[in-house]
Specification:
Blueprint lengths: L2 E3 L14 E3 L9 H30 L3 H13 L1 E3 H8 L3 H13 L3 E5 L7 E5 L1 H23 L3 H25 L1
Antiparallel strand pairs: 1-2, 3-5, 4-5
Helix pairs in contact: 2-3, 2-4, 2-5, 3-4
Length: 178
């Protein structure tokens, strides 16, 4: 083999040392397929973390993470149309309708016709909805903020940009399939 050098590995615990080997002249580098595999594995770990976060929120108020995201937007905006909510929550209009149905049934939001334009339906949070956000948001935000603060600002910006580009590509692929 050779002497150890630093290189990312796919299935190592967070914070553990990263080691690979090089021969006398070249470091062993992952080929494109192992880099893609590493990306898929990392994405899966992120999805699992979000599912755990969603489970913690659900155990408290019975809300899913998407429901909490919608509710947080409604609380922050005061009153919002379903179309604006879909845009701000970055979800499809059909997804928003289902989430709002459940949130309204459970008493977290109210839907009312706009007084100036009867075609529009305004969504507002009830006192129960505001309380649910107030109870859940600090823990969720604190947890995510702490994780992100551990990274340098340039790394946070790079992650944000990469995730935005990746989701834009996924969205365009989904649109092509429709």
């Amino acid at each position: 083999m050779g002497e150890p050098v630093d290189r990312p590995e796919t299935n190592r615990p967070a914070g553990s040392p990263v080691v690979t080997f090089r021969d006398r002249h070249h470091e062993t580098a992952p080929d494109d397929s192992s880099s893609e595999l590493e990306l898929f594995q990392t994405a899966r770990r992120l999805i699992q973390a979000l599912e755990r976060c969603s489970a913690r929120i659900r155990s408290h108020d019975g809300l899913t993470l998407p429901q909490m995201i919608c509710l947080r937007v409604v609380v922050a905006d005061g009153s919002v149309t379903a179309t604006a909510l879909a845009r701000r929550a970055r979800m499809s209009a059909s997804t928003i309708v289902g989430l709002l149905d459940e949130l309204e049934t459970r008493g977290f939001v109210r839907r009312d016709r706009d007084t100036r334009d009867r075609r529009l339906i305004n969504v507002t949070a009830t006192d129960s909805g505001k309380a649910a956000v107030k109870q859940n948001a600090p823990g969720l935000e604190r947890e995510m903020t702490e994780l992100l603060r551990r990274l340098p600002q340039t790394e946070r910006a790079a992650i944000r940009q990469s995730l935005l580009r990746l989701t834009a590509h996924i969205d365009s692929i989904e649109l092509q399939r429709q």
